[in-house]
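This is your field. Pick holes in the following sequence-structure pair:
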Amino acid sequence: MFKLNLKIALRNLWKNKTYTIINILGLSIGMACCILIFMFINYQMSYDKGYKNEDQIYRVVSTWNYADGNNFSSQGVPLPLAPALRNDFSAQLEKVSAIQQAFGIVKINDAKGNEKLKTQERTFYIEPEFFDIFDFKWLAGQADELKNPNTTILTKETATRFFGDWKNAVGKSFNYQNNENYKVIGVIDDLPKNSSFPIRIVLSYKNYKNKNMDRWGSCSSSSECYVLLKKGVDINSLSAPMAQFVNKYYTDKGPGKEGHHFQALSQIHYDPEYGNFAGNTMPMKEIYGLMVIGAFLMLTACINFINLATAQSISRSKEIGVRKVMGSMRKQLIVQFLTETFSLTLIALLFACVLTEAALPGMRNLFNIDMAFNIFQYPSIFLFMVALTVVVACLSGFYPALVMSGFSPALAIKNKVKANTGGLGLRKVLVVVQFALTVVLIIGTLFIINQMKYIRERPIGFNPSAIALVDIPNDSISRTRFDVLKSRIMQVPGVKNLTLCMSAPSSSNNNESNFSYNSSKDADFQVNTKVGDENYFKTFGLDFVAGRAFSKSDTIREYVVNETLLKRLNVPNPQEAVGKKLNISGRSGQIVGVVKDFNNNSLRDGISPIAISTYKKGYYTMAVKLDSKQIMQGMADIQKIWNNVFPEYVYSSSFMDDEINSYYESEKIMGTLFKVFAGVIIFISFIGLFGLISFVAAQRTKEVAIRRVLGASTFELVKMLNGSFLLMVFIANLVAWPLAYVFVSKWLNGFTYRINVSIWPFVIAMCISLIITLITVSMRSLRAAKANAIDALKYE
């Protein structure tokens, strides 16, 4: 029976080629998009999975809540927090480990003592307990020896790159930062890419030195702390002990409302508020957004199928009547029609697989992740495809099967089934729903494009154009060469200015510290500290509203602050602050200038209170302002001079514009996806519309012919056929506008600086949908209106 049903189904699909092609095209594109979206979401949801005790692993994060409503969050913790937790939470925490990110030069010599490798690497100072918390796969050695100074653990790939074969790496040594030699005591397997830990080189935490090792008032995002909960301990029960812990270690001199809480390992990848070392967070709202888009796409394709199937049911009424007269039960007819739907869906799935494979390289490039369309390697993809096929076939085919199997045999054989049989009202509702979804995506895309344009064009308080950020070493020997480096680079053609600093005005590297103003007690909020020399303001184009820049000196302690700091201190006149004392973490100095506010982070966040000072030991970056016409040659000359001044180090540089653009990577990705999927859903909607008007025109052939004979013009006939579709699309816009407004408003609320929700994107979306509808429907209705009336009437 199944074989017979399949043969009949394929025969009917072949007979109605236009219907089949339109449905296969719509379904295959929709299914391909859904498969790609599922693969991406499946990859994102697999982050930080597979650890033995993953449900008991937590990261400690920091928050500062201020009386004026300004809050600050950080993935980092003060350096003394880990040993204090180990002591105070011994009853609740099995293990506690600090981890500190750093960057440094790794040098490896051959057997003869000659240098064979010199490279700049990201490293992590880690305590041995970290490897009790995370059960990484060990290939050689063990973590216990990491408690000894000058020891290191490498991943398999890094050990192979350094020493040729990871199996021979244990016992070997390398030099770090031209200072200390580290002995390899273990090799672990490479961490997967879907991990929040970009660990390649682990250094003994015993070697980490920092002036803030005992200070609770300083916090850097480079310092994290992980804990392993004891079995049976409820994480919620630690809230009260943590509040007591904060009161114990944070004195009255602090901002007063510091806080820490435990963040589950499973949440780290999805929480952009805190971030992670890998810098690859994916907010859950964006994952949910992709799920909704996938549902929109598939629903649109299914609506096409339902509309076309119910419209086509009239032409198959005689076939249904004959089947019923010959004894077919309604259940048998439903099975027959569902077989057709499953056959068509399976064919569409095959085309969808081809489209998925073709689109995968672009998907990998867009998200910069390693995805493979391999059902054997990832069985979940196969299960999703099976589920998708069943859902699409049932959703698309069940209602048309019910409608067609319910025809009266007497009316069907006489070909008297009315044109509105099969749910003309439902078809109109489905068209409205389909175009409402389309309009929502169009409006969302327009707002995303406008917001990203606003971000690119909005002044951020300084000029980031044509500024190269060059890393510089900062040890006692290297600092003696800073003046030589500056004087030689200033002679390079195209170099306008340069400054030595810790980081650019806008940077992901932000440090917060306690401070006091004008010899009073510590303020009830923290200040964002930046370090730069006397050329910092001129190089970055920072404007002064009062006072001056630093004096040229390495010893005089002077501060330049921004307007926001004074506003938070209730100092109305910037000139009034000049000459006042500022004490930041024990470094006291005089305020000599006030600069206009500038964005120190992305436009999602507000401007922080900022204090800038000189501090030669804090210079890790050289910012060079270049003539935009001489960038390429200028950068080549700068690299040559840098290598000559610091031959024992590795040159590394980037551009300020690229750093700022990186803040909005997720928005750029979502913007691209919205544009692509909006285009796809528009295409699916309008091929369905073209198919539907084709059937409507065919059903009204006789009416069109009679009207033409009675004198109706081509324009009047096209207007008659177009009217109902344009009305449905207009209603779809009215339905879509409130939905789009809610979506757009919530998305824009994620930005401190954002565009206003104006009416124009809504109007443009309406115009786009109406114009494309008019063109699509007119193409087919014009053909019907121009058809020879005699051909339609001669059999009467």
In short: The chain has a mean pLDDT of 82. The CA atoms of residues 543 and 595 lie 5 Å apart. The chain has three domains: 2-43+284-455+666-793, 54-270, 474-648.
